[in-house]
Amino acid sequence: MDIAFVLYPEVTPLDLVGPLQVLTALSTFEPSYRTVVVSAEPGPVATDLPLTLVGSSTFSAVPDPYMVVVPGGLGTFKHLADAALLSYVRSASRAVSVCTGSLILGAAGLLSGRRATSHWAVLDALGAYGAIPVAERWVSDGPVTTAAGVSAGIDVALHLAEELAGADVARQVQLAIEYEPEPPLAWDGVDRAALEEPLRRALRSAAGLEF
Amino acid sequence: MDIAFVLYPEVTPLDLVGPLQVLTALSTFEPSYRTVVVSAEPGPVATDLPLTLVGSSTFSAVPDPYMVVVPGGLGTFKHLADAALLSYVRSASRAVSVCTGSLILGAAGLLSGRRATSHWAVLDALGAYGAIPVAERWVSDGPVTTAAGVSAGIDVALHLAEELAGADVARQVQLAIEYEPEPPLAWDGVDRAALEEPLRRALRSAAGLEF
Fold first, then answer.
1. Which partner from A4, A31, A188, B187 sits 20 to 30 angstroms from A39, CA to CA?
2. How large is the ipTM?
3. How many whole angstroms separate alpha carbon B113 and alpha carbon B124?
C-alpha cells in the first residue's frame, strides 16, 4: 500500500521529512507499506531552505495511493487552485496534512464539515473551506488527519504508525529516530502573545494572506 | 557568518533538515548568519529515504565556515576516511553533529578528550576517537557540540539559536516551527530493553558495525 508524500514548489522540508522518516522506518517493519515522494513532474523542486528536493516518482506513476501526506509551506498558497495536485490528493483513500498543507486538503474539498487543524498562524483560514478549526496537535475526522505546524508532522506520523502497525512497532520507530524531545526554551514568565503577534503578521504577509 | 550543513551520500534527511529549518529561520531574524548546504561536488545526493537532496553550494565555494553541521545516517560509516569531508569539517570555527555525525567529528580528530554524544545505538563507538561518551540530548565541549539521534537535531539547533541570537529570537523560531512536541507513545509498563536490543543489533548491522 502506497503512502505518497506530495512534493510541490516552496514546500517547508521539515513538514515532509519528519513524517517521511517515521513512515519509511515503519515500512522496514511492515513491508506491506511503501513510502514514495511524488511530484507532478519528475525533477528538482525548490523549497524555503537552501536545499532542493527530488522525489522518487510522479503523480501519474503512483495513482490512487492508500494514503497521501501533504506538507505545508509558503508555496501552499500558490497551489490552492492547482488542479493536478488537488485531483491527486482526492484520489487517495486517506489524506494527511502537516502545517498549511491542510489548506490544500480544504481546497480539494476534503474538509467540509470536518474538524481540522493547521499552523497556529493560519488556523482560522480553514473556515473558508467549511472546516471546523481546532487548536490540537493533530486531529482525525473520518479519512482525513490534519496536524499542526511543521514539527507536528513527527507526532502525527508516529500516531499513524501506531494505528497501522501497532504500538510496539511505533515505539521501535520512535527509538530509531530517538524521539525524546527536549525543547530548550521555557515560557515561564514570558509574554508569549507579544512574540506571537508580530510573527503571525510576518508569516501571513509572507504567505500573501491579507486578512 | 556561514553555517554550513554538510551533505554526503546516504545521509538521514531528518538529521539535516531539522536543524536547517531552525537555523534558516534564525537567519531571517539575524541576517548576519547565512545557512548553506554544501557537498563535495554539486548535484543530487541519495539518502536513506525515497528522496534525493541537492545542496546549495560546495565545500570549495564556502571555505572556512563559522560553523559546520554534520548529520548522520548509514552513509556515515562509509565516510569516516573521506579526506575532503574531514578536512572541510576541520576548517570550521565550530563543529556541530547530529546522530552518527559525531563519528565524523571523531574521525576528523575533533573529539579527543571531549565529552560527546551520538545515536544511542552507537554511542560506545565514540570511544575509539578518544571521546568521553555521554548519554545526553546534546553536549557542548569547547567549540564542538554533538547531539543524540535524528530528532535531537531540532533541540540542539534551538539551543544554538538561543546562544547566537538570544532567547526571544529562539522562542520565535520555536513558534514558527510550532515545536511543542507530543510524542504519542508512552513507555509505562513497556519492556523498553526488549524493544531496544533487536533494534540496536539491526541498526549496527545495517551500518556494518560488527562489535
1. A31
2. 0.96
3. 14
Q: What are A109's three cell numbers?
A: 474539498
User: Which residue has 574531514 as its cell numbers?
Assistant: B86
A69 touches chain B (CB under 8 A): no
pLDDT band at residue A3 under the 50/70/90 scheme: very high
Q: What are the CA-CA distances from residue B118 to residues A186, B53, B70, B197, B206 (Å)?
A: 25, 23, 12, 17, 16
Within a 10 A sphere around the Cβ of A117, how many other Cβ atoms? Answer: 26
Cell of A74: 509558503
CB A105 within 8 A of CB A116: yes
Q: Would you put residue A201 in left (φ > 0), alpha (ψ -120 to 50) or beta?
A: alpha
Å from B197 to nearest chain A CA?
Answer: 10
Cell of A83: 488542479
* Cell (9 digits) for B186: 508512552
Calculate the average pLDDT of chain B: 96
Domains belonging to chain B, first-starting first, are 2-207 (3.40.50.880)
Query: Judged by CB atoms within 8 Å, which residues 178-197 of B form the interface with A?
Result: 178-185, 187, 190, 195-196
At residue B211 the predicted structure's pLDDT band, cuts being 50, 70 and 90, is low
Grid coordinates in use for A28?
522496514
Residue type, B70: V
Chain B residues within an 8 Å CB radius of A12: 21
What are B146's strand-pairing partners? B97, B139
Backbone φ and ψ for B24, nearest 5 degrees, come out as: -70, -40
